[in-house]
Amino acid sequence: MARPIVIGLEVHLQLVTRTKLFCSCSTDYIGRKPNTNVCPICLAVPGTLPLLNDGAVALASRMGLGLHCEIQNYSTFGRKNYFYADLAKAYQITQYELPVATRGYLDIECEGRAKRVRIHHLHLEEDAGKLVHPTADGRLTGAAYSLVDYNRGGVPLTEVVSEPDMSSPAEAKEYVMRLRQLARYLDVSDGEMESGSLRVDANISLSNADGSLGTRVEIKNMNSLKALERALEYEITRQNKVLDSGGRIVQETRLWDDAEGVTRSMRNKETASDYRYYPEMDLAPVVIGDAEIDGYRGAMPELPWEKRERFAKSFGLSGEEVSILTEQKELAAFYEAVVASGAPTARAANWVRMEVLRVLNELGQDIRDFRVKPSVLADLVTRVEKKELSSTIGKEMLDALARNDLTLDEALERSGARVGRLSGDALGELIKRIISEQPDVVQTIKSGQDKKGGKLKFLQGLVMKEARGQADPQETAALLSKFLAG
Ligand code: ADP
Ligand code: MG
Ligand code: ZN
Q1: What pTM was estimated for this model as a whole?
Q2: Percentage of residues in the chain with pLDDT exceeding 90?
Q3: What is the pLDDT of residues 143-156, one digit of tens each?
Q4: CA nearest 158: which of 263, 64, 51?
Q5: Ligand nearest to the CA of 11
Q6: Which of 82, 203, 217 to mutate to test ligand 1, by most ligand atoms within 8 A of the CB atom?
Q7: 347 Cβ neighbours under 8 A, 6+ residues apart
Q8: Given the DSSP bridges, would you call strands 262-268 and 5-14 parallel, antiparallel or unpaired?
Q9: Is the pLDDT of residue 418 over 60?
Q10: pLDDT in tens, 368-394
């Protein structure tokens, strides 16, 4: 019988504060010259003292509330000691005994099934610096040394620790996606796995025959959701093999190698005593009063699941449509603004979901950079709805508007498309002309050789093209058949 899979995740989110957790250095370290974002505090010059950034406490509290946690009135920092070059003080300041938020949950849905993942706690901590190794980015190729960059050292993180409630790699991925979405809705973190503002340590074990939990392994170094899934799949196979051959799982930390598609043992798992945790006596306890917590609660925006429910109810959209439109709150706001400008809800949903996302993808843009204003899209969608424009022309116009600063009328003018429909006699004239220009094709059709109707389609295509999408396809087909028969 297959051994049940047990997964618990520790997710680090970089908080979007302007300055570091204990000093006033900027948190904006990406692409910066190494060691320019530093000061005596984050470089651990003796005699300097940390000063807690209140903004980070507020963001962690918000995230805690989003995860239905109890925000603690009183929490403390400790020192986690380890000696490594990325850590200037040789200890990390982190919340250990009393974290800022405890006991919450996040509801996810995986393969159509709802699941509640319990949150053990969420705490604040500082990030470490970064080592640059010879092969890491080409800068040190061939060097016999590594360099250290402290720009990231001291950047605020919140670590969200789940209970071991997930039972498949797909659930783990879904959990991270929902957590990331929540962090973005709350403006707590960018949650980018690629750049490292969201990092996942995955703990995984296979349960014993008597149902008790097996020995777990911790996997690190996954920098995409795909990598997280692959690493977990790999580890399930590896652990099953070890157990099948009568071996035992060693509790250890393993690193995912994305190129090779394997995990490798990095070190035996440290236990808490290895870190010699002790209280951080340079920082006062974090005290958050009930009034403050109420303030945070009152300032919570609409949460992803609330938005999904409201979208389904007020716009009559399917679950699939709702989840695409609400994935990003900015996209959801864009859609709502299109509807508010008078576009019909179902058609607007289609346009945003299919066309807007297609264009953004083509341009490598985010909805925040989109040139087309919601009111302009609403105008476009409405004209298509009223059949003043064909949907082909509509899509062309969207493409043009997304790439140039034009009004809709200017874009139509430029493309040569006249606003208004081509039908009746005018359409008939166009069709007659095209028939006269294609004698061979017409001959083939008339002699009954166009069995699959491909030639007829070809003629219809020519008409539609010349009509610049202003002809109705059904009317065109009907007129074409009439003239070809006549
Ligand atoms: P540590 O103190 O070593 O970090 P924790 O008890 O804090 O260990 O657990 C860390 C993570 O490991 C949590 O997310 C938890 O859900 C997960 N975890 C604990 N036991 C197991 C297990 N047997 N299998 C999978 N994950 C587990
Ligand atoms: Mg832990
Ligand atoms: Zn600093």
Answers
A1: 0.86
A2: 74
A3: 888 899 999 999 99
A4: 64
A5: 1
A6: 203
A7: 381, 384, 385
A8: unpaired
A9: no
A10: 999 999 999 999 999 888 888 888 889
Question: Hey, what are 403's tokens?
Answer: 């790439």
- Nearest 5°: phi and psi at 481? -60, -40
Q: For ligand 1, what atom is nearest to the CA of residue 270?
A: 3
For the beta carbon of residue 8, count every other beta carbon within 10 angstroms.
22
Ligand nearest to the CA of 89: 3
- 78 near 96, Cβ under 8 Å? yes
Residue 203 CA: nearest ligand 1 atom is 26
Residue 405 CA from chain centroid, whole number:
29
> Where do the structural domains in the chain lie, given as residue ranges?
5-296, 302-415, 424-485
Amino acid in the structure at residue 143: A
- Helix, strand or coil, per DSSP, at residue 10: strand
Q: Supply the DSSP symbol for 24.
A: S
What is residue 151's predicted lDDT score, i.e. its pLDDT? 97
Alpha carbons 27 and 38: distance in angstroms, whole number = 10
Question: Which atom of ligand 1 is the closest one to the Cα of 272?
Answer: 2
Whether 321 and 342 have beta carbons less than 8 Å apart is answered as no
The helix or strand, by DSSP H or E, that contains position 200, with its residue range, turns out to be strand 198-206
CATH of 424-485, one of 3.40.1170.60, 3.40.50.300, 2.40.50.140, 1.10.10.410: 1.10.10.410
Contact (Cβ atoms closer than 8 angstroms) between residue 373 and residue 405:
no
Kindly state if the Cβ of 253 falls inside 6 Å of ligand 1.
no
| 179: Cβ contacts below 8 Å, ≥ 6 apart | 11, 13, 106, 160, 191
Take residue 474 and report the two structure tokens written for it: 């059904």
Whether the CB-CB separation of 222 and 229 falls below 8 Å is answered with no
